[in-house]
Amino acid sequence: MMRPEELMDILDGSNTAIVADDEYSAATFVCGLATQNLAEKTVIVVYSEIKCKKIEKLLSSKSYCVGINSVLGKIPVVKVGKTNRVGFGEVIAYVEERGDLKEMCGELGLILKRIQKSRDIAFFVGFDLVSYLYTPAEIVNGMEELLTHIPNMTKFFLLTRVRRECIPVITNLFDVMIRIKRSRGFDIMAYNRVYDVFVEHSIIRELPPLPLFRIDGEKIVNIV
Amino acid sequence: MDVKELVRAFNGYSIAIVSDDAYGAVLFVSYLTSAMCLEREDVIFVVYGESTCNRLQKITDSLRENNYCVNEFLRDVRVIKIGKTPEISFGKPVAFVEDNGVQNVAAEVGRIIKNRFNGSTVFFFGFNVGMHVHSTSEIVRALEELFSWVDSTMYFVISSTTSLDLIANVFDIVVRISRIESFGMRPGNVYNVYVEHSIIEGVQQIPLYRLDEFNVVEF
User: Fold this and answer.
1) B107 touches chain A (CB under 8 A)
2) CA distance A190 to A86
3) Which residue of A has its CA nearest to B193?
4) Among candidates B198, B168, B189, B213, which has minimal Cα distance to B1?
5) Between B12, B200, B204, which is nearest A192 by CB?
6) What is the CATH superfamily name and number for domain B3-191+198-218?
7) CB distance from B144 to chain A under 8 Å?
8) CA B84 to chain centre
9) CB within 8 Å: B199 and A163
10) Burial label, A224 (beta-carbon count in 10 A; 0-12, 13-18, 19+)
11) Domain boundaries defined on chain A
12) A181 lies within 8 A of chain B by CB
């Protein structure tokens, strides 16, 4: 099994979309990757009130993540939304949602550029909601604007249940797409916290499309 | 998990009740509210639209006629009405919000809940009518506005014709109420109830109940 640190090394400097069936599995995966060293270099960018509250509730309900809650408490957070309220981390900047994605991405890019020297890994959470609020063209223009300011920063976008029309946009914009998929269809009698993690699309030679891990409950295990 | 335990497990979260028909949804809501009533929880209904108001009244009346699980609670429940007129034919009206744009409505309802009913469990009806009147982005913006005000437990009754991707994106928990064909001797609507999506560790994606007008049976 590829170790999480190896995966992080390969993804250094790239734009990665982690596309999950739900936020629960995405959080389990990120908790599995998280190390003290990683936390010291990370900034979290969170979009929307809906997602902010969801993430807060998810983290407080997830016993597996309790260990990293102390680390999370110190991670700088940039909030994009209607209010500057965030239930986790330390809010260092706030970008008001004014209905113009390109302008918002420009403002966000400038903030991230300022802190890039000390924090060169950014996790973007809640941006899946953007796919329901803006057109694919607006999303592409917004990403272009963001990338202008921080081309070399390592970026992870945690996306769940993106609007179907926007899925081709992900393939076209991101270097790597990691998929976290429920390992079987919904069976009414089945226990359902088992997910397969695999690389679905990649432009990095060292990381071709391949199965990576399995999430079984709270653990990341080898796929056999 | 009995209904009382379920209500406790859902406390503090936003829940979508996604149903094949309004009858099944109201039936399930009546079981939930009965349990909440026993627990002395404050409950408030927010009803969007004249048609939703009329249909809700007809369903609760027909359930009440049969004198099954619907108790006086549904007659006395506090209601915030959103629409063209303040009239409602069930419950006790506590506020009226004129429909002057979904964004304004969401902000106004959010303010009312935060200032007057903070901590109450809120049930929202009429989401589907809103989906026909407004675009998806308008609805999401309105929910964003509402969520910026309200921290209480929120239940949204939603039709199964709405995209699950959108629903699962917004809500913490999705409960599916799926109608099944019943070829037994007893006529009537029978439903399977299960948790289809959950971001909460203590609430897993499991089958919950088989539901009809007479009782609720755990799987």
Assistant:
1) no
2) 35
3) A188
4) B198
5) B204
6) P-loop containing nucleotide triphosphate hydrolases (3.40.50.300)
7) yes
8) 21
9) no
10) exposed
11) 16-212
12) no
Q: Which residue has the tokens 């997602």?
A: A51
Q: How confident is the model at residue A223 (pLDDT cuts 50, 70, 90)?
A: confident
C-alpha distance from A46 to closest chain B C-alpha (Å): 14
Find where tokens 């209607």 sit: A82
Give contacts of B170 with chain A, Cβ < 8 Å: 50, 129
pLDDT of residue A68: 62
Structure pTM?
Answer: 0.88
Terminal CA-CA length for chain B: 9
CB contact under 8 A, B148 and A161: no
* Size of chain A, expressed as the number of residues it contains: 224
Domain A16-212 fold = Rossmann fold (3.40.50)
Q: Mean pLDDT in chain A?
A: 88
Residues of A in contact with B166 (CB under 8 A): 132, 161, 163
Order the strands of the B92-98 sheet from edge to edge. Answer: B92-98, B78-83, B43-48, B121-125, B154-159, B14-19, B173-180, B190-198, B207-211, B216-218
Provide the 3-class DSSP secondary structure of residue B209.
Answer: strand
* DSSP string computed for A115-141: HTTT--EEEEESGGGHHHHS-HHHHHH
Residues whose CB falls within 8 Å of the CB of residue A180, separated by 6 or more in sequence, listed in order? A18, A19, A20, A21, A25, A26, A29, A195, A196, A197, A215
| Domain boundaries defined on chain B | 3-191+198-218
pLDDT digits (tens, 9 = 90+) for A25-57: 998 888 888 777 788 899 999 999 999 999 989
A187 part of contact set with chain B, CB < 8 Å: no
List chain A residues with CB under 8 Å of B143: 50
Are the beta carbons of A50 and B170 separated by less than 8 Å?
yes
**Of chain A residues 68-127, which have a CB less than 8 A from chain B?**
81-83, 97
